[in-house]
Write a structure and sequence with these properties.
Largest sheet: 5 strands, mixed
Structural class: alpha/beta
Strand content: 15-25%
Helix content: 40-55%
CATH architecture: 3-Layer(aba) Sandwich
Shape: globular
Strand order of the largest sheet: 5-4-3-6-7
Number of domains: 1
């Protein structure tokens, strides 16, 4: 079994090699499709990724289902996504599978949509049958908790809010499936 830092390094190395081979062809299209002008402005001033070991406090937020989400003292998986992001479209099925497999084991998940409107995010989730907890991260809410640069963004925090995993860009299905080993 790999140590958590070895597992994180394996995620990064595999993804960097694959993305390096395919990014040239996809990048111009993906960046145009994934960001509106206002989103591009927010991305330009977005903070860097949190580092493993950082402590983050996630403010309460209303889920797309209308319920309030508050991060209690449980492990939390944060997933920033958009319905127009092609890399998110590839990663989201794995996130749904992880949520289904781990929710009964105490893992909390919060998917944060950066779509222009919450209705766009809700329609996308419903069309694909995703039921992981998801909220619309409005520009106002993001003033309290800014999205790091990049998309998708995947953060795993322990019950003390300490970052155990910080990934920018699409994760492979096998890497998403390995996330629980970090807890």
């Amino acid at each position: 079994m790999m140590a958590p830092h070895e597992l994180t390094m394996a995620f990064q190395t595999r993804r960097q090699v694959t993305l390096g081979l395919s990014l040239g062809a996809l990048w111009p299209w993906a960046s145009v499709q994934a960001q509106s002008p206002s989103e591009a402005a927010l991305e330009a001033v977005a903070p860097a990724m949190p580092r493993v070991g950082d402590v983050l406090k996630v403010p309460s937020i209303r889920l797309l289902t209308g319920q309030d989400f508050q991060h209690e003292r449980q492990p939390l998986l944060l997933y920033w996504w958009s319905s127009t992001c092609p890399f998110c479209a590839l990663q989201s099925p794995s996130m749904q599978g992880l949520w289904q497999a781990q929710k009964s084991r105490g893992l909390r998940m919060l998917a944060l949509s950066i779509d222009k409107k919450p209705e766009d995010a809700l329609a996308y989730l419903q069309k694909r049958g995703y039921n992981f907890p998801s909220a619309w991260a409005s520009p106002e809410w993001r003033k309290q908790f800014p999205k790091p640069k990049g998309l998708p963004i995947t953060l795993l925090m322990d019950s003390q809010h300490k970052v155990l995993l910080a990934e920018k860009g699409q994760m492979f299905a096998e890497d998403v499936e390995a996330i629980p080993r970090l807890l």
